[in-house]
Design brief:
184 residues; five-stranded antiparallel beta sheet; three-stranded antiparallel beta sheet; 2 helices; 17% helix; disordered N terminus
């Protein structure tokens, strides 16, 4: 007799492929939801989009109960989330500013990552000659989400930021994440 645990392991691969295919088939938007994670591209531009003004983008991950994703150094297993930006000429995104992770012990392994809600922010530089009315942002993100098994997930996100208007709806989240950055 085959145990239900064995059947679940056999089905995990095909199910993961279907989830990835479904996510890939969805048109790009600011939010991608799977049964494990709700991912959203968010922005913080309190002074609008202009050269020399603070601008941050981030991927907000809201994990379902008992699911987690990984830090830049995942530990003994896992993979970190990756962000690939498509921005207008001259606009550049820095590396992920990884918040302090929590320990994720799994049997004899020790991993580092996130559960609950986490923001993975990046600083964005706008060139001095930026004169557009909007800043189109495209992001392709990939993450590994795990519970008893791991599922590779991905999403394509699009956001259009107005150049001359503040975008600060997620200010508290960006501030809390800044406070959670590791200190040297």
């Amino acid at each position: 007799m085959i145990s239900s645990k064995h059947v679940a392991r056999l089905l995990a691969g095909p199910v993961a492929l279907l989830v990835c295919a479904a996510a890939a088939a969805q048109p790009a938007a600011a939010v991608v939801s799977t049964p494990q994670v709700r991912a959203e591209l968010v922005a913080h531009a309190p002074e609008g989009v202009a050269a020399g003004k603070p601008l941050r983008l981030g991927l907000k991950l809201e994990h379902q109960r008992d699911w987690h994703t990984y830090w830049k150094n995942p530990g003994d297993s896992g993979l970190p989330t990756t962000l690939a930006w498509t921005l207008p000429a001259g606009v550049t995104a820095g590396p992920i500013e990884w918040p302090t992770p929590r320990r994720l012990p799994i049997g004899p392994l020790l991993n580092y990552g996130y559960d609950g809600t986490v923001l993975l922010p990046v600083a964005v530089q706008v060139p001095a000659d930026f004169a557009a009315e909007t800043l189109p942002v495209r992001l392709h993100a990939e993450w590994l989400v795990c519970k008893d098994l791991c599922i590779p997930e991905a999403g394509d996100f699009v956001l259009e930021l107005p150049a001359r208007a503040a975008t600060a709806g997620h200010a508290a989240l960006f501030e809390a994440t800044r406070a959670a950055l590791p200190r040297p």
